[in-house]
Amino acid sequence: MLLQPLMDAMSRQQxxxxxxxxxxxxxxxxxxxxxxxxxxxxxxxxVACEDTRNTRxxxxxxxxxxxxxAAHQHxxxxxxxxxxxxxxxxxxxxxxxxxxxxxxxxxxxxxVDSVREAGCHVVPVPGPSAVVTALSASGFPDDGFxxxxxxxxxxxxxxxxxxxxKDQSATLVFYEAPxxxxxxxxxxxxxxxxxxxxxxxxxxxKLFEETWRGxxxxxxxxxxxxSNRMRGEFVVLVExxxxxxxxxxxxxxxxxxxxxxxxxxxxxxxxxxxxxxGQKKNHLYNLALQMKASGQ
Length: 296
Ligand code: SAM
What we know:
Helices cover 44% and strands 17% of the residues. With 296 residues, it is α/β, with parallel strands linked by helices.
């Protein structure tokens, strides 16, 4: 039962021909699709999608049936060439993934890249994405986030990535599969320490949605508290490193940087601090910015 003004707004949508529309679709709850997305899907000549069975079912939910083209991880560039020919003939093409926003840990980016390189028009039609959905419910500080997505499955590569992230002040956002969630939380605790705050978002927008927030030291117990918690889809958010944490217990480094920052611009203070302490420039630069931001 749509309100008449919404129906009118939908019928007035401009949906130009010869355009690739990149459309976000639900990550669980089928009602999380925009009216504009439905209008564009309805107007599309063809829908390029990750898995034709899933997309046929999704479109059917909304009473739509469209010709589909499979565009998955292994054929994106070839499919892009076919889509470019169709766009040049003036067709409207919708690009969707199985769930959420195409190109976010999903196929789509290579198609968009090729289509743009060919000089064709690309229009985003925003919709859900697990990263932003989880972030919005985290309450972690609003000073940027770093979307990491899936960590490498190999342990050594995983630790390497985590090590490169441990001094980041931005909130870190990970995707993880259920069979790796426990090992992942252990690795996060080992690398970031037990006191860091974490939010685990499970089955977002679905019947058994859970969002739990605590410290990394508590996360293992929460996960083990109910066998159902190991099931489903996960987003894990880790609060960024605070200044004190990044500086560790090295009060001397902090003291030196603080004195230099009183009378020098950041870049000069960092250059001198590198010579005095022997620490890495990037590391000290990040610390200096954080110290300034927090008034230390
Ligand atoms: N393109 C999607 C997006 O925009 O979020 C992501 C696709 S990626 C292949 C699938 C991963 O996203 C899952 O393994 C999980 O980490 C996360 N995810 C997707 N839907 C989710 C949901 N409803 N709840 C929690 N995490 C979800």
